[in-house]
TrEMBL record:
Its EC number is 3.4.11.-. The lineage of its organism: Eukaryota, Metazoa, Ecdysozoa, Arthropoda, Hexapoda. Belongs to the peptidase M1 family. It comes from Aedes albopictus. Residues 946-973 have a biased composition (Low complexity). Residues 590-914 form the ERAP1-like C-terminal domain. This is Aminopeptidase. Residues 68-255 form the Aminopeptidase N-like N-terminal domain. Pfam families: ERAP1_C (PF11838), Peptidase_M1 (PF01433), Peptidase_M1_N (PF17900). Residues 285-512 form the Peptidase M1 membrane alanine aminopeptidase domain. It is a lipid-anchor; GPI-anchor. Residues 942-977 are annotated as: Disordered.
Length: 1000
């Protein structure tokens, strides 16, 4: 499962990098690849910190007295009418393995009506036992069927009839809906069972290790179709169709899935994509990409998908809480992760579709064919799926550059949350459904994917794939824990001198899987002798704390005179706290560790080496690999934030950026500049900061066509263009503002649509000073489509306006209900997104939101429609964007006006946030930043006038409160609000409000 497309939403981190796939990287001559890897000699060894044992409540686990072998499930639904009630019967074939008088299974929110228990002895006829009685423990969600007679070890069938109700929270067996071409609401039923919600559809042994086969029958409208993991036959019974599915392979309950809908489909019989009829023309790319990616994974892993499943079906679900779900043979997606419309969808949408398909298809092996023994090993699912999310798309489309997104979207993104003191190890237990759900986090996904990719490079591609095939073959149709993976990988390298003598795959992996966080490798050179001391300690992002953590760190390094960054298969090892290594690197050349940032750790150097690196980049940007340039910026930033590096070293490093033209380093730089932008906006020093940014981006901006897209424009160039042009417009570049405004005006007045790949910047920046006609034009486009990714982009853009009256009118549409007679056609998550778009778009939006919330009537509607949590979030975000006394006065007035609508804790927290902002301005970090920026701006030599056309930069920034995010805001598709409104009424609400604001 991919939860909310984690790689799109990581703390506003930028989304791409530039590099080469390991399979294509040649080995250099610096190391003799025939020699075994070396462990660095110990310099100062200490014992590793021991992770304390977890306290878990085993009462949430089912007793081990019985286990299932097969389920016969019969369901009946009238979802086509909008009816949520459903009926069900399940016959659970089970084996009792220890004498008991109770069969215990899970259920949640079902009404049990009757139960029968039959003994099925190995020899003899089945024997019906007395009807069991049942009790239910709501705390652990366990349903116990008690028999009058003891149940001895044997085979039984427990048949339960029950009723349920389709949920409305996109969990379990739930109802979804969409609006068809005739503007009618159409209902469908679908499932989301991972991790503990199969029990909402039928009583079951809802634990991943308790695998069984499933035979499903669904009775539904004859005008609908039912789909599940397997193929089916059907018969007609009056107005109903009875769909009977073939028996599945043995699998975990959370992988069962079914959809009852009127969807259309495209694709060959063995690989179809299903969607609502009015979106079926947007599935062509998903059909193509799915087939290619599945074929590449087949070949790569050496185990055919179709050896176990007859077909692959992909479903675009209108309301889907998760990003996508890997149900075996029937993968479900939030619509924006499957539907691509070339006239509306951006390059980011297409990338998301390809990578999410690859993620879910990787799960067909990692999770489905081999399932986790228990949820503590969920990284065996999600870590592999995250790695292959990028690697499988690279194999399918090597010319596009998808793999080159891995460093920034995964490695650097993972390091941010994993650098917190509160992080957890990869292998980590859980008991309650809530705690199990919390395991699907950034440790399970990007951190685990990063560690696995590091091991892929350590072992080498051939050994890696051989080891994975051994692991998957040995555990197929079964469960696995981490030891099973290590055994498979170890078997592929026996006798090959891949690892140092006496060191196993388990030794290395356990140091990463059972240890919280990750290390920083400190490199201290003795320049006279070439000797280098390397040491490790756990990196914690907000402070430097002595610790005794020890990882087995694979390291390599590059020297300036032999800058061979492409040998990624040769490593030495640091397995102690510190070690001394000898080199012949001369004193006047730099040394860089962790080639292309394959290793999951940060690197810090002594000041002299940082200076050598900085000077080299200023003189020749290409002397260091682009991925290492990104790593250097990212590491220096976080090392400075944690007190491990002088801030001036980071700031000096950034001064090489005027010559940088690659996206990966600019991604890392974007994060740094965003941080300082948020701290300095609204202060007297902000103008100097924008002047600095103008100077850093001037050269690369001049090479970009921000208002057009060429057919041959590479993917990474599009990412770069969006990042740079957003900064350019944000800090007042006249050329950028002129071009984006002109492109928007041309769409409004001449009907020349802005190309989707530049629409994010053009719409946002063009709207900053837009008039009512331009604002209304984009507002209307929300209602002309049900392409949710496009709608999300428009909502975000509408928040960029600097006209507070437009923004307040926009906010009013978010809380409008039946007051205008017809409900506006927003998804509920889109309403919340409107609020987010307004406060994120600029300081004008923050001010507009404050004024809006000072109206008691608006506050009542706001809370009623969007909930108190959305109000609390809005207050928190206003506070985080408050940097001066005038803004604080506005916030205090708002808090006073809100009164009892918010808790004292919310108000106190908001004021504390502002005080932290003010404190930063007087902190050492703040003062050093301001001083460096001022000196740098003073040192800028004005460029001579030129007669050639090019960007004209003005020092005055537009008024913004947040740095550009290089992510496209994701639309969270949730429950439909009762059907579509007429577009005219919706537009009238906004147009009227805008007209009032403009002319009264």
């Amino acid at each position: 499962m991919i939860a909310l497309k984690w790689s799109v939403v990581f703390l506003g981190l930028a989304l791409t990098a530039f590099g080469t796939a390991a399979a294509e990287r040649p080995l250099s001559g610096e190391f003799n690849v025939d020699d075994p890897p070396q462990i660095a000699p110990a310099f100062a060894a200490e014992e590793s910190e021991i992770v304390p044992l977890q306290a878990v409540d085993e009462s949430y686990r089912l007793p081990k007295t019985s286990y299932p072998t097969h389920y016969d499930i019969q369901l009946r639904t009238d979802v086509h009418t909008g009816e949520r009630q459903f009926q069900g019967t399940v016959a659970i074939h089970l084996n009792v393995v220890a004498a008991t008088n109770s069969i215990v299974v899970h259920h949640r929110s079902l009404t049990i009506q009757s139960a029968k228990l039959v003994l099925v002895p190995t020899a003899g006829e089945p024997q019906e036992l007395d009807d069991p009685t049942w009790t239910y423990d709501t705390r652990v969600e366990q349903l116990s069927f008690k028999s009058v007679n003891p149940l001895n070890p044997d085979s039984y069938i427990l048949t339960v009839t029950y009723a349920g109700r389709l949920s409305n929270n996109q969990d379990g067996f739930y109802m979804s809906s969409y609006v068809d071409a005739q503007n009618r609401t159409v209902y469908l039923a679908t499932t989301q069972f991972e991790s503990t919600s199969a029990r909402m559809a039928f009583p079951c042994y809802d634990e991943p290790a308790l695998k069984a086969t499933f035979a499903l029958q669904i009775t539904h409208s004859r005008f609908y179709t039912a789909n599940s993991n397997m193929e089916y036959d059907f018969e007609i019974d009056g107005d109903y169709r009875i769909s009977k599915f073939k028996v599945t392979p043995i699998m975990s309950t959370y992988l069962l899935a079914f959809v009852v809908s009127d969807f259309a489909y495209k694709g060959p019989a063995t690989h179809r994509v299903h969607a609502r009829a009015n979106a079926i023309n947007e599935v062509d790319f998903a059909v193509e990409a799915g087939q290619i990616i599945l074929e590449k994974l087949d070949t790569h892993l050496g185990i055919g998908y179709y050896d176990h499943m007859p077909t692959m079906k992909q479903f675009a679900i209108p309301d889907f809480a998760a990003g996508a779900m890997e149900n075996w043979g029937l993968v479900t997606y939030r619509e924006q992760y499957l539907l691509f419309n070339s006239e509306l969808s951006t390059y980011r949408t297409k990338t998301n579709i390809a990578t999410v398909i690859a993620h879910e298809y990787a799960h067909q092996w990692f999770g489905n064919l081999v399932s986790p023994e228990w949820w503590e090993y969920i990284w065996l699912n999600e870590g592999f799926a995250t790695l292959y999310e990028y690697y499988a798309t690279h194999m399918a489309y090597p010319e596009v550059g998808y793999w080159e997104l891995f460093n920034t979207q995964v490695i650097q993104a993972a390091m941010v949350p994993d650098g917190l003191d509160s992080t957890r190890p990869m292998t980590w237990n859980a008991d309650t459904p809530a705690s199990i759900g919390s395991l699907f986090d950034r440790v399970a996904y990007p951190k685990s994917g990063s560690v696995l990719n590091m091991m892929r490079n350590v072992l080498g591609e051939d050994n890696w794939t051989a080891g994975l095939k051994a692991y998957l073959t040995a555990r197929q149709l079964n469960t696995a824990n981490s030891d099973h993976l290590y055994t498979g990988l170890q078997s592929a390298i026996q006798g090959k001198n891949v690892l140092p003598d006496g060191v196993t795959v388990k030794d290395i992996m356990e140091s990463w899987a059972t240890e919280k966080g990750y290390p920083v490798l400190s490199v201290r050179r003795t320049y006279e002798t070439g000797s280098v001391i390397i040491s490790q300690e756990r990196f914690i992002s907000d402070r430097k704390v002595p610790n005794t953590n020890i990882w087995m760190i694979p390291y390599n390094f590059v020297r300036q005179s032999r800058a061979d960054f492409d040998d990624l298969n040769t490593f030495s090892w640091l397995s102690t706290k510190a070690a001394r290594i000898s080199t012949d690197v001369s004193a006047n050349e730099w040394i860089i560790f962790n080639k292309q940032q394959v290793g999951y750790y940060r690197v810090n150097y002594d000041d002299a080496n940082w200076e050598l690196i900085t000077n080299a980049l200023i003189n020749n940007v290409d002397s260091i690999h682009r991925l290492n340039r990104a790593q250097l910026i990212d590491d220096a930033y976080w090392l400075a934030r944690s007190g491990r590096l002088d801030l001036e070293i980071l700031m000096k490093l950034l001064t090489y950026l005027p010559n940088e033209t690659e996206y990966a380093p600019w991604t890392a730089a974007n994060n740094v500049l965003s941080y300082f932008n948020g701290k300095l906006r609204g202060t007297p020093d902000y103008e100097n900061f924008t002047t600095l940014v103008n100077h850093l981006i001037r050269k690369v901006y001049a090479t970009l066509e921000v208002d057009s897209v060429s057919e041959s424009e590479p993917l990474l160039h599009k990412y770069l263009k969006q990042t740079i042009s957003t900064w350019a417009c944000m800090v007042g570049n006249e050329d950028c503002l002129k071009r984006t405004k002109a492109a928007l005006q041309k769409e409004v007045t001449e009907g020349v649509k802005v190309h989707p790949d530049i629409a994010t910047v053009v719409y946002c920046q063009g709207l900053r000073t837009a008039d009512a006609a331009e604002y209304q034009h984009l507002y209307k486009r929300i209602y002309s489509t049900q392409n949710w990714a496009f709608r999300s982009m428009i909502i975000t853009a509408l928040g960029c306006s600097e006209n507070k009256e437009f923004l307040k009118a926009f906010l009013q549409t978010a809380i409008a209900s039946n007051g205008a007679g017809v409900e506006i056609n927003y998804k509920s998550a889109e309403r919340t997104q409107i609020v987010q778009a307004v406060y994120s778009g600029g300081r004008a939006g923050v001010d507009a939101l404050i004024e809006f919330l000072r109206d008691p009537d608006m506050v009542r509607e706001f809370i009623s429609r969007l909930g108190i949590n959305t109000l609390n979030s809005a207050i928190s975000n206003i506070a985080s964007r408050t940097n001066n006394q005038e803004e604080l006065n506005m916030l205090n007035d708002l808090l006073t006006d809100l009164g009892e609508n918010i808790t004292p804790q919310t108000a106190e927290s908001a004021r504390a946030t502002v005080q932290a902002n003010f404190a930063w301005q007087q902190s050492s970090e703040g003062l050093l930043t301001v001083n460096f920026v001022e000196e740098y701006v003073d040192s800028i030599v004005p460029e001579p006038p030129t007669t050639t056309e090019g960007p004209t930069v003005t020092p005055g920034p537009t008024t913004v409160s947040q740095a550009p995010s290089t992510t496209t805001a994701g639309s969270t598709t949730t429950e439909d609000d009762g059907g579509a409104a007429t577009i005219a009424v919706s537009i009238t609400l906004l147009v009227s409000a805008v007209a009032v604001a403009l002319f009264n």
